[in-house]
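Good morning C.,

I know you're traveling, so I'll keep this short. The sequence:
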Amino acid sequence: MAALSSVKRAGFGRRGAQRAVAVLGVLVVACAATGAADASDAVKRPHPRRAPWMVTVTVQTVPVLAHVRFTFDGAQIVTDSRGRATYTGSHDFEEHSLTLHDAVINTKHRRYRFARWSGQRDPDQAFRTSVEGLPLRADYTVTAAFSARYPVTTSFTDQHGTPVAAGRISSVSVRSDTGSRVDVPPGRTVWLDGLLPVFRKSVLTTRTISYSLQSVMVDGTNTVDAGKQRFTPAGSDQAVFVTQFHDLTISAHDAVLAGAIGSAAKVTMPDGKVRTIPFGRDASATLRGLPRGHYAVDVKAGGLTARQEVLLSKDRAVDVQVIGDEDLVGAAGLLLAIAVGLLFAGRTAARRAAGGTKPGGKTAGKASKRVWKKPWNTSGRKAVETTDDTAQEQLVAKTDQKSRRLLPRWAAVVEADGSPLAQAGEATRAGTPGKAGTEPAPSAKEDALHHARLPEAGDMAEEPPGESSDDPSPNVSSEKAGTSSGDSDSDNAGEPSGEKAVVT
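The tokens, ready to paste straight into the viewer:
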């Protein structure tokens, strides 16, 4: 009320005095609240001259490993059964260091190797065993990751479960799912990576590694299918692999006579080695337990060797066909018989073409290829050529008149020498009786034509152009054209029309 009276005396009205009092009240409340807040802060925050609060740094191993030693600013810390170690110190603004002492840890069934840090603040120090510049202002965790290797012992069987001796296997190769290829000694223990730390999205974890079988080499050939058999070292320390081994049965027979042949077979292995296998009583040989692959089988009989390629992917029986000495002799005899037959057939065909005779000796139906030439006529024109006896008879019949015309001229030439033609002429004039009293005496013309000279080798001539040797009627128009009609009439007078001149 005193404040209100003083306000009124200052010249404010009643309403204005109430407002002023309200403002003063608000200011007093605000000042009281601010003082209380400052008092609470003074209790929570230590005074710079007071002792600082404690900060804890935790070190965790992945995977969980016990008894791993670290040092933080020279103070040793060791992981417990949970793989955890801690360091607690006063808050400060200094830089601190963390060092791993057990970077390699070997046990009976595991081999651990330090891989990297996580949560160390500086990425350039992620793969070092000692980390510098760690703060100590608030609680945080640093992770130490390890890779793990596991022992694996390999063993091998065939597809039937029969164990395969490790001594037969030359090499074994496996491939991890990370892409690395590892050669595994057959039948012995090998340490393989089983766990691998993976840092992804600021989180560090481990991943289990698996392997696939790539090859098992036996006698130079791979006995497994690559990538089909897998194993995990972290899951088991025994890896059993199934390989492929098969039987090969070999026999041989004659390619022509189909009988058993040969006494042994030579088998070329995939690595190039050669094995000789003798045939048994059943004329066959069997190789058991061969690794699958490519083989070559050779069987020798006499002077020849037969080879057959075999791709062994299951049990197989191979029958090799061989050409023996008896087959060679038989083939040679057959070829000789064919050659002799062709020779005789060729000679027979040549004789038929040259002589115009059938195999029985009879005259061929068609005209032969012999060409006969008549003597030159008195006019100097070349005689007409004939091709066989029938054609020549036709020619003589057509030229009968020509022959009768020439007969007196031939007789006049040979009478002076006492030739057979002259004698025939005298006999004709004397009227000599025919032979044996049954045949009339030949006329002078017939006798002259009978004793006319036969064609010599020089008289053989080719057929004139435009005429065919198969034509039984040669063209005689040229000779007839050279003879006058008067001579022809005079020569033909008194001669029978059916008389023919025979040329032998």
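Safe travels,
E.
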